[in-house]
Amino acid sequence: MIAICTHLGCIPGFRPVPGTADLGEDWPGGFFCPCHGSKFDLAGRVYKNVPAPSNLEVPSHHYAGASRLLIGVDAQT
Ligand code: FES
Fold first, then answer.
1. pLDDT digit of tens for each residue in the chain (77 aa)?
2. Are 50 and 60 in contact (CB under 8 A)?
3. CATH superfamily name and code, 1-77
4. pTM exceeding 0.90
5. Does the C-beta of 46 come closer than 6 Å to ligand 1?
6. Whose CA is nearest to atom 3 of ligand 1?
């Protein structure tokens, strides 16, 4: 994902550890925006009832082989 919050453009932090003291026991891990508290899961999907209106953006990408991923390039048709 592109780490720019869909609320007002802050940079969400990668917080993969579940149940941290500051995010609560029910935090499953994901991305947390420190500016206004938006939360995204590990796939960048936004949680309900947070300021961010949409998921984190997934950049164009292309699988160029079994073990090669090109970021910023769409598949050629
Ligand atoms: S900019 Fe991320 S919650 Fe507001």
1. 999 999 999 999 999 999 999 999 999 999 999 999 999 999 999 999 999 999 999 999 999 999 999 999 887 76
2. no
3. Rieske [2Fe-2S] iron-sulphur domain (2.102.10.10)
4. no
5. no
6. 36
